[in-house]
Amino acid sequence: MRHKDFVSQFPYILLFAIFGTLISMAIVGGLILATADLHGISNPRVAFAYAALISAVDPVATLATYAHLNVDPLLNTIVFGESVINDAVAIVLFKTLNDVPSQVFDSMTGVELTGRLTFGVLQLLTCSLGLGIALGCMYCLILRFSQLGQSTSASTIFIFFTAFFTYNFAEAVCGQSGIIAVLFCALLMGGFATPHLSTEGSMMTSFLLKQMSSIADMFVFLFVGIAVVYIEPNGLIFGLWVTLFCLAGRLIGTVPLGLLTNCIKNAAMKHRPSEKRHLLSWRHILMMWHAGLRGGIALVLTLELGDWVDEIDGKGTKECLRNATLVIICGFLLFFGGTTQYLLAKLGIPMGGVGKMEHHKGDMREYQNKILSWVKPILVGRPNHDNSNTVIANILSDIRALRRGETPTKIASQDTARSAEWTGNAYDMFGTFDPCHADEIALASSMRSSIPEMSESDEEDELDSSEGGIGARD
Hints:
Radius of gyration: 29 Å
Shape: globular
Strand content: under 5%
Helix content: over 70%
Oligomer: single chain
Number of strands: 0
């Protein structure tokens, strides 16, 4: 996803993330109370607290499919941005209903509760955004003045652990949203930290972050898959009902907001051609509704439900809500996650990088360029990288030589300083001075070449002798 695509759609992402979550929470909570006789959840506080946490969409499987197929950037940007920002909204709504003591909550008026929720959402969004940008600037300055980019392994590890530090610092120390802080920190570093890295460092960092994110997703769904075995019947029934409520809430929230987004774009961009307004078609809106999966955020928030749930709505209610969350996550993942590619093809959504968002160069673009002209000299400066002696370039050269049956280029043939630098970097990255194992491959090739090949007549003679030996033994 290009940064300029995300920035251009950010106001509309906020529209879906904030109001879409509120609409979904209201619909799901209202339907839970309306059907209380069918599942037993009858307390309004319990119903809306659970509706708040289950309204946080987390379409990991959908976004993975979008990225793999390189779908229409408008659809990918809106779905990705909404899934990240709405976590903060859902967390504020849930914590307000979950953490407030029962006596204080019962004494709060509707106006006080609304004001507390509104202030909490705005405070969490703005402070988390600002914290992420501030930390991103600090990391870029560290990369610039420490010259970590000169070492591929050091810069890769540094950037990897900044993600953990940013999340934990935002959550544990500042009480803000770690997800939003990491998002905007990553957006800033993507533009201003990359120049400090070599080509090799950028490639290795991207590879490490991608693979570690895949492993993290795998562990989350592995836990869900193991835990779903222990679901009890009451959690299964309630989970199936809430699944229907979530689909209804997602539909009621997505379609009107999609139409409202198009109205705003038409009004704000009336001087542009229609193809450059990036309007949401009915296909986009349908895929956005289809992308309403639930995941790790809903599961973590369910595990944080307090004991007040059992106290005011009966013993076993909290366990029922946990089981229902597992049912919803697995059901949405199997059905909607598994049909994403099929539906994209049926609806004719552009894939394979065919679609591209073109951005209008107006006053806002000039204002952004002025800000960049002031920020870039501070955060970037004049990075200087020597990419002529990179480890990966030498490894690829050796691999090509091995494929041609030639002897790989030896480090000793290079000058002493560059040889020491190459071997040092190779060991730091791979833990060996011979990352492509050229010596082992050469040894195996020589062993194969020393074994005489058998002619067809020799093979027939050996086969006849073996058959004769078997007949003699018989």
